[in-house]
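Hey team,

Filing this mostly as a record. A colleague (T.K.) asked me to run one chain through the structure pipeline before their review meeting, and I want the input and output archived in the tracker in case anyone asks later how it was produced. No errors, nothing strange. Just documentation.

Input sequence:
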Amino acid sequence: MEQNDVQEPGASGSRRSRWARAGLAGLSGLIAGFCALAVAELVSAVVRPEAGPVVAVGGAVIDRTPAVVKDFAVRHFGTADKLVLELGILALLAVFAVAIGLLALRHRLLGSAAVLVFGVVGAVAAVGRPEGSPADALPSVMGAVLAAGVLYLLVGRLGPVLRPSPAAGARDGQRDGTFDRRGFVIAATAAAAVSAGAGFLGRRLTSVVQAGATASRHDLVLPVPDSPAPAVPPGADLRIPGLSSFITPNKSFYRVDTALVVPRINADSWLLRIHGKGVTRPLALSFQDLLKREIIERDITLACVSNEVGGPYVGNARWIGVRLADLLREAGVRPPSQGGPADQIVARSVDGMTIGTPVETVMDGRDAILALGMNGEPLPFAHGFPVRMVVPGLYGYVSACKWIKDIELTTFASYDAYWVRSGWSQQAPVKTESRIDTPRPFASPKPGIVPVAGVAWAQHRGISRVEVRVDGGPWHRARLAAEDSRDTWRTWVWEWPATSGNHTLEVRATDGTGATQTGERVGTVPDGATGWHSVVVDVS
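Output structure:
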């Protein structure tokens, strides 16, 4: 019988002692869990950061989450959705760790074995990721094995102590309610300290591994484009307080993806493969190979399909890169309209993401590019360094692959990319949308002339008209800012003669084809939201 399985006599098993032992058993579970994560972080620094159990399990959760739930998370948590998920996973792990510690207090071996089960879960999640490999199981497995040993050791210090009876020898002693407090404190402190050291070392090793990627970005000097973007026309930015700037700064540009750990790739070792159906000359291109080709610079607005009506997940930037269509033609690719057998480009990211883009769209003459730079600097890591796709006129989930490493030509009939498997449409051109930036919802402007201003977009079709109405009345034509190109958004303003009271402002846009934005409210799934953005204000 194990030491801590022996029943304590009533006199010794006081309620206070039982609560103390239970509390320390829960603490033992937490320390073991901390050990597992710290050791896993150290091992994943050698394997790859994405193989860590929290990241792997988080990725598996994202992969299996219904589209509606993902959309809810993006809309309500924005770029913090990944942090919320990670904190949720850590909170659940903490609860399970305490429970396992309490289990180990009664069944020491069974509790320690339960830790190994969680290690198996993490290992399966890591290996099962799209980019997973057998080596990715190591962080979870090694972390769990060491954590099981730590838990077994700590709980062993919580067993009742054998004390000799006053009238007999040690062999005739009794077990009382006390336990080896000093031994537990020493063991727990040592385990926590060693775990903290392992975690710190793991962080340091990861930083060293990633230093090459950071240096390659820092040392990169973007080339002068062979085809520079035209200067932004005077008047394209209305510069009205509260109105979005025409060019969205990199630090303010929206980020929506599934990467719990932002990949950091060394541009010097980066390689892109172009292969697949209809490719007669497969290509393997390094970053330097791209720099030797014709470099173009264009202003292009990107929008996320999860952007609800009036939402923030749209931005405009100046991109520099290589025309994707030129590379496809170099590989022998022909669009379907010219007899090519492939109608889908499947772009693969280093984190396993797959994005499906119509071949015809990329090769129809628009400035679809493999971008190297954003707003005058190399791509930020969070936005795809060293190379990402940018295709004007399509929502990001079918065009804007970040951290790209592979392009395969295939068909929509034979392959569903990541988001399509999650319930989104295969093809998703950007819908005509508009947004009121100022006044903000529930603002209290003074009576008189109030500028109502915002942005409108319909990439690759352009915006020809924006109209605003008050309280369901007649539509009033807003003044449009100068157009940069049909691939960018346009700012607009309407001078509203505001009167006292509560009012509802609505906006709608008409694109370059003459199609006016619909007022029918539809959610973001499966191919983007529709409806007029409205703002309620109180003029007083």
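Quick notes for T.K.: Residues 1-12, 168-174 have pLDDT under 50 and may be disordered. The radius of gyration is 30 Å.
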